[in-house]
Write a structure and sequence with these properties.
Layout: H1 2-17, E1 22-25, H2 35-49, H3 55-62, H4 67-74, H5 80-98, H6 108-117, E2 122-126, H7 130-140, E3 151-153, H8 165-174, E4 181-185, H9 188-196, E5 200-204, H10 210-215, E6 220-222, H11 227-241
Parallel strand pairs: 1-2, 1-4, 2-3, 4-5, 5-6
Length: 242
């Protein structure tokens, strides 16, 4: 019943955007609720290497980034082989914490289904390694909407977020221009990447408040993908492009 109500209110509005819109989603914290687990994984790893991260430091400088660049900044004395080893270890800790209990951000599954119904192109653009992506999608049930040809993985590119390259590749995948794209992101690194790619970027407030997201360049923010939030977003996009 909830899905029917969601679709009945949203589809007529989305259909108006179908010829001129494409959506590019981050995964961790944007489609799936995982930020708390990544923070915990960093703390577990940090206990082994004498690295303490406050929640504020994690939100500002770590969330949304690949592990290796973070470790190089925080522990420049570590040899590269050890950095790679720790990067893999941290993701292993995260997967153990996640298990098969990934939960979509409220309304995310219905919103993606609505995009699919309206033939609006969409994809995931993520810094996460493939093994994490597969686990998050399968355990959250989002895998039915995101087959392999709808994924852009930064691990296969020369640069990861906050560099714009992952989102530029996402535009190519969807076959749309930047002005017709909408990025959904929960981290400063991700928002920075979307903005640098000249794409309309929406902050999803699962981790951060509105102020740091807008300071990073997000043109608006939402706390989830409920009908009211998406309708307000479409209105904001209409005003922005008029």
């Amino acid at each position: 019943m909830a899905t029917v109500k969601y679709m009945s209110r949203l589809l007529p509005q989305l259909e108006q955007w179908a010829p001129k819109m494409g959506c590019l989603f981050d995964l961790d914290g944007t489609l799936v609720q995982t930020d708390h687990l990544h923070f915990k994984a960093w703390n577990i790893l940090g206990a082994e290497i004498d690295l303490k991260l406050s929640e504020g430091e994690y939100k500002k400088s770590v969330s949304g980034r690949q592990n290796a660049p973070v470790l190089r900044e925080l522990r420049p004395e570590f040899p590269e082989t050890y950095v790679k080893e720790l990067s893999l270890k941290k993701e292993g800790i995260f997967r153990d914490l996640l298990g098969n209990n990934a939960a979509p951000v409220n309304g995310a599954d219905m919103f993606v289904e609505a995009l699919h119904s309206c033939n609006i192109p969409y994809c995931i653009v993520t810094n996460a390694p493939r093994v994490n992506v597969d686990l998050m999608l399968s355990s959250s049930g989002l895998d039915k909407w995101f087959p392999k040809d709808r994924l852009v993985l930064a691990q296969h590119l020369r640069h990861s977020k906050p560099h714009p390259l992952p989102y530029l590749e996402g535009l190519k995948l969807l076959g749309i221009e930047a002005r017709n794209g909408v990025v959904f992101e929960d981290s400063i690194a991700g928002i920075t990447a979307g903005v640098r790619a000249n794409i309309n970027t929406v902050g999803v407030r699962t981790l951060l408040d509105e102020t740091p997201m807008k300071d990073a360049g997000a043109f608006t923010t939402i706390n989830d993908y409920s009908t009211e939030n998406i309708l307000a977003l479409l209105e904001s996009l209409s005003q922005k492009q008029s």
